[in-house]
Design a protein that fits this description.
There is one protein chain. The chain has 310 residues and is α/β, with parallel strands linked by helices. The protein folds into two domains: 200 residues, 3-Layer(aba) Sandwich (Rossmann fold); 39 residues, no CATH class. Helix content is 28%, strand content 31%. It is built from nine helices and 14 strands. The strands form three sheets. The chain has an eight-stranded mixed sheet with strand order 1-12-11-10-4-9-8-7, with helices on both faces. The chain has a four-stranded antiparallel sheet with strand order 3-2-5-6, with helices on one face. A two-stranded antiparallel sheet has the order 13-14. Helix 5 crosses helix 6 and helix 5 packs parallel to helix 7. The structure holds adenosine-5'-diphosphate and magnesium ion (MG). The site of adenosine-5'-diphosphate has 12 residues, from strand 2, strand 3 and helix 2.
Length: 310
């Protein structure tokens, strides 16, 4: 695993401001006298047009992060902006507009995404009609979106005639009805088998390319790494690792592989993977030794020579 830190202020950074920017983001839930810190200093950047996934154990803060990005919840401290809009200082009226125009959201529970008494097409038309679209225009865009998710032949089916995977594809079309630049999905394949889940990710990929929409998907499924540009892992309310999908060519054959990095935050903190800590039996402290081009980490009780560079 490599350590990875973007250079702030590098040319790429200046010309290509991230679409989503979270810095030192905190969310604290207060219940009576108990405080739960769901996000603790989370840093995340997402490029415009990126298709990325967030993975992490249950309770690590994935839904909290997504709800904040969706404008459904407000952060306690830190910075969070989407498309240049500051999510901490938005007025309630701006927030309503933001949710309506700037983000589409897909929930894990299919039943939460679709209305049972409307056909697939009517479900997709509804948000557009509510937003003042001409019925003809709503119908035509509804068709386009359902075709894009592979449901061109299911326009007039009601949800109870559709499989779970088809219902989630309707949900994705609904989320994109008002043409938001950002699509957020919280474990959209959590209730589906892996084959169906893979089809859903196929739909995300083609929408990402054809509709130029930035997509952030929270998932439990480790197999999705092959289908997205980047996977970030969240642990205890912070991003711990990032892994990038790379393609290399040997002759005519393409090989897909992943490069995993530990994320280094602005204060120089990085999370050592739990498996490493367990293997080395590192608990509260570790010894570090600077070598010419790398740093070695040892359990506390091991005596080490400080290297030539120290
Ligand atoms: P994930 O989606 O990764 O499973 P969540 O973002 O739902 O994690 O939760 C992160 C932490 O915040 C958990 O400890 C959870 O119990 C807590 N939490 C989430 N929502 C609330 C809430 N509304 N009130 C109190 N605690 C919450
Ligand atoms: Mg969750």
């Amino acid at each position: 695993m490599r350590a990875y830190q973007e250079q702030p202020g590098s040319p790429a950074d200046l010309h290509d401001q991230p679409y989503i920017l979270c810095e030192d983001l905190f969310k604290i839930y207060k219940q009576e006298d108990l405080e739960v810190v769901a996000l603790r200093g989370l840093d995340l950047k997402v490029r415009r047009g990126e298709l990325m996934a967030i993975v992490g154990a249950s309770g690590s803060g994935k839904t909290t992060l997504l709800n904040i990005l969706a404008g459904l919840d407000t952060p306690s401290a830190g910075r969070a902006s989407v498309g240049g809009r500051n999510l901490l200082t938005m007025t309630p009226a701006d927030m309503v507009q933001y949710r309506r125009r700037q983000v589409g959201f897909v929930w894990q529970q299919t039943g939460r995404n679709v209305l049972a008494y409307l056909t697939a097409l009517q479900n997709v038309e509804l948000p557009m009609i509510l937003d003042g679209f001409e019925p003809g225009a709503a119908r035509s865009r509804g068709r386009t979106l359902l075709e894009a998710v592979g449901l061109g032949d299911r326009l007039d089916s009601r949800p109870d005639r559709l499989s779970g995977g088809e219902q989630q594809r309707v949900a994705i079309a609904i989320a994109l009805a008002n043409d938001p630049p950002l699509l957020l999905a919280d474990e959209p394949t959590g209730e589906l088998d892996s084959q169906t889940a893979s089809e859903i990710f196929g739909a995300f990929r083609s929408l990402n390319q054809d509709f130029d929409v930035t997509i952030v998907v929270v998932t439990h499924d480790p197999a999705i790494a092959n289908q997205v540009d980047r996977v970030v892992a969240i642990r205890d309310g912070r991003i711990s690792t990032e892994s990038f999908r790379r393609v290399s060519f040997r002759g005519r054959e393409a090989y897909v592989y992943h490069e995993e990095y530990a994320v280094v935050d602005a204060s120089g903190r990085l999370q050592i993977p739990k498996e490493y800590l367990d293997r080395l039996d590192v608990k509260e402290r570790a010894r570090l030794r600077m070598e010419r081009d790398h740093v070695e980490i040892y359990p506390e009780e091991i005596e080490i020579d400080q290297g030539p560079d120290s």
